[in-house]
Design goal:
Blueprint (H helix, E strand, L loop, with lengths): L1 E2 L4 E5 L2 E5 L1 H13 L4 E4 L3 H9 L8 E6 L2 E11 L4 H20 L2 E13 L14
Helix pairs in contact: 1-3
């Protein structure tokens, strides 16, 4: 499978239907965020800037690789502290596969989920600073 930044297209009796990879990344990232326990889709700012400068894509924390009418996706996510990471990753795979295939008509052959981090719980705002006496 090759990395492809071109439009996904098919010919119908009435013309051509194009599905841009940006549309696929939006569908995939939105579907991933629907899963309880996912706090963010995307990589850290340093990695994102590097990928933009190197023109490697990865918009919205999703990379799209294509072959004919099949897709392979790589998603980078951050999960909430205290959740079952493997359960969340499995649910992300299922939810993204269902959404992308339903909305585009393309076959998703693989979805790799990379857990980039865990979001720490936020301290309550009314909690006093321990350094003060």
């Amino acid at each position: 499978m090759k990395r492809d930044s071109s439009d996904r297209y098919r010919t119908t009796e009435l013309g051509i239907v194009k599905i841009n990879n940006n549309a696929i990344t939006t569908i995939a990232s939105t579907a991933a965020l629907e899963v309880k326990g996912v706090s963010k889709v995307g990589r850290g700012i340093g990695k994102t800037i590097y990928e933009i400068l190197m023109r490697r894509g990865g918009k919205n924390g999703v990379k799209v690789y294509t072959s004919e009418n099949e897709l392979r996706l790589i998603l980078y996510i951050t999960v909430d502290y205290g959740i079952d990471v493997t359960r969340v990753a499995d649910e992300v795979q299922e939810n993204v596969k269902t959404a992308v295939e339903k909305m585009t008509g393309l076959v998703v052959s693989a979805i790799d989920v990379i857990v980039e981090g865990v979001r720490a719980p936020q301290a309550p705002e009314n909690r006093q600073d321990r350094r003060k006496t």
